[in-house]
Amino acid sequence: MKKLLWSAGLGVCLALGACGGSGDGKKKDDVSRVFDPFPSTYTAYPSATTLITNATVLDGKGGLIEGGSVLIEAGQIKAVGTDLTAPDGAVTVNAEGKWVTPGIIDNHSYLGAYPSPGVEAHGDGNEVSGPVTAEVWVEHSVWPQDPGFTRALAGGITSLQILPGSANLFGGRGVTLKNVPARTMQAMKFPGAPYTLKMACG
């Protein structure tokens, strides 16, 4: 009987030894993983070189420039000041009596997940199956045709962090979007923006 038990024990040890792997020192964690299975497909809209002149400009650093100008090239702000010259072929906009400010970032938004105006069919902001649903991704709920996006854009909001609702403790993963017209959430997704976690602990 002892011999039988010893043989069985030896067999188990040999089997466990065979499960030890190849011995190449690699851990399972070293295997590359896909952390962004729904990558951004955002592409900037074509735009003409534009010089905005004679505006009251808030520079985003606390400064105010009366009679200021803003030069935009390839969709990016290239210069801000008072003595800017329009490059050849540029569109010039006389903004006398108007204000120019940096785009506003809405750091806590539910647009797309809770449309505005509210539509019950698209109200997908909360997962209440348990107190912790960190595995839920709000980007799966975003409705790009939410009328609230264009209203927010009219108010100067150019980027938004969309979050799950606050019905439970850990609501899930947030996503950062550019406020641009698009057919899909991925076409709005801010390239390279980190993901976030919604925690509404009380």
Descriptive key words:
202 residues; alpha/beta; Urease, subunit C, domain 1; five-stranded mixed beta sheet; four-stranded mixed beta sheet; 12% helix; elongated
Structural commentary:
This protein is an alpha/beta fold and 202 residues long. It has two domains: 50-100, Urease, subunit C, domain 1; 104-199, no CATH class. Helix content is 12%, strand content 28%. It contains two helices and nine strands. The protein has helices at 2-18, 147-154, and strands spanning 50-58, 64-73, 76-81, 91-94, 99-100, 104-109, 157-162, 170-178, 196-199. The strands form two sheets. Strands 1, 2, 3, 4 and 5 form a five-stranded mixed beta sheet that branches. A hairpin with a 2-residue loop joins strand 2 (64-73) and strand 3. It starts with a helix and ends with a strand.
List the helices and strands in order: HEEEEEEHEEE
Helix/strand class:
alpha/beta
What general form does the structure show? elongated
Q: Portion of residues in helices?
A: 10-25%
Radius of gyration: 27 Å
State the helix count: 2
Rounded mean pLDDT score: 87
Runs in which pLDDT lies below 50 for 5 or more consecutive residues are 12-16
Question: Into which percentage range does the β-strand content fall?
Answer: 25-35%
Instruction: Please outline the major beta sheet.
Output: 5 strands, mixed
Number of extended strands: 9
